[in-house]
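Troubleshooting log. The previous run stalled partway through. Resubmitting the same two chains, unchanged.
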Amino acid sequence: MFNVRKLAWVGFAFMLTGTALVAVMIILNEASVLYTFYPPLAAHPFFYVGLVLLVLGIWACCFGVFINYSHWRKAHRGQPTPLLAFFAMGVFVLWFFASIGITIEVLTLIPWSMGLVETTNVMVGRTLFWWFGHSLVNIWYLVAASVWYVVVPKLIGGRHFNEKLIKLVVILLVILNIPGGFHHQIVDPGISLSIKYLHVFMSLAIAVPSLMTAFAMFAVFERAGRRLGGKGLLGWLKKLPWGDVRFLAPMIAMIAFIPGGAGGIVNTSNQLNQVIHNTLWVVGHFHVTVGMSVVMTFFGICYWLVPYLAKRRLTAKMNRLGVIQTIIWTVGMVLMAGSQHAAGLLGDPRRTSFTTYGDHSTALSWIPYEYVMGMGAVLLLIGVLIQVYAVFHMMFFAPKGETEFPVAEAEDGAAPAPMWTERWGLWIVLLLMVVAMAYVVPIMDFILNAPPGSPPIKTW
Amino acid sequence: MKQAVYGLLLYGFLVLPPVAALLESIMIVHMHMQMPLLVLSGIFMARFFQIHFPRFFEKWNKNGVPGVLLFMVIWSYWMIPRMMDETLSVQAVEVFKFISLPFLAGVSLRDSWSKLGSSAQSMVFVFLTVVFLFMAWIYIGADKQICNNYLEVEQKTLGWGSLAFALIMIIYFLQLFYIDQSEYK
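Second attempt completed without errors. Output:
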């Protein structure tokens, strides 16, 4: 039998080496290509080799999960998979198919950056990047959602929502996800307006499972609150354990996804995107979605997962520190993301260094918002320091003891998820169909009507 | 019955002139999105006909073979470049498309599917795969514009799209062999 544990370590080693290689190249000023490394900006070939190693590491982990899943299926015939394992399967299926696009891109960029090939097709590169880029953030979101659905209900003394709905949300997020990245290219040239218009539907399709999640989570909260004696229209809200950081952090994360999701719909809509494209609004958007919805969920996880792994306990004092950290982080993010959204609407660009454009009045009007961003950033730095301290403390210094890995159970008498939800072969084929529908047109257009291509360019 | 209503809503949406015009303006979307969606709307609406006219289906589609043959004929017909071209220039052909794909192909496919054995179902998959491969060969290989209404570049795109669909169908087929489907019923 193949050793999955070894495969995970192999993946970890690959990712660590890849990240180190990439970071070294950036620090050596050999890879000033920003996060998206769009061609024609060229980095040192080792930067791309590092990315290849990173993806190989991800694939090793993907295959580990797939092998584990298939073992479990063989040993438990006719039983639906446990929810967290189902989420893991969704996350890694998405990882695998999303990373195919970027792998093709990077493999074409390596000979180009080495000078073996003279030019590269810039538009194909950008499109292959966003085949991967948006799914990447959705992978983080899917991991956070697994905690919302499966762990949070246990922490508040409730039960998880209907298993069929949860699995359907995972399936929909996996199938519909990859073309969602296209809205990052909504102002790109070379793509006809009708194709962009059709793509808006594909991007907005991801909003459907997110709205299902919002509905399901509030239903879980209300049920748990009422069970604990909450009365009246909103009395159940008071019964929730607001003083428990393990609940508070993911709860604020979930609430943040309401403005985050709404902002996402703005970004996806063709006309609205014209207003906010490449402004600080976008930076504000991912501070809300990733910096709050995802990261705060992960912070919340730390307060039970780290003690669980270290065989220690979460003390009342550490819980209080966690609550304080959560509040500092929330205030910091609200200041930072809020002012970024506002400055973006006034036209403040992103991906540029600071300038007042010769003291132009519009550019000067952005500065007050930039002060607020700075204040938010200071609070966030304090938040990070506290979080790092908390993790170290819980890992090495907290009192020894047993910590439970919280996994919620189904409502009494709830039906198990139907077995058709486990047909990953079919979901993957549907995912590929959606990808084919989304990408054949633009990619063929870019290749068949290709411009001469661009040589590598190093700006600084 | 609920799904028949959803099918009707989908059909109504696809029939809307701006929607139809947008989908038909891009060759590959016309063939790979609008046409399958019309069949899908028919698959959903089939429930209505099965409930209200059970005798008709019992009489004409007892073992599912006539229905699936009708589906194959209609589907193949719409794969002919000339037919697709004519929907844009001749109103009557456009009307025929909106009737034939949902009501002749979609409804009959739905009614036949459960009546067919697994080997006959596999044959439908093989048929679709072969059709897609054939289309890929025609549209990528043709060095002339085949449709009056679409450019050569769109034709090539459609060819590559068909090849992608054929490969995906083959992947689907392979996983049917390797994964025991009885577990998921």
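Takeaways: The CA atoms of residues 438 and 457 of chain A lie 30 Å apart. The radius of gyration of chain A is 23 Å.
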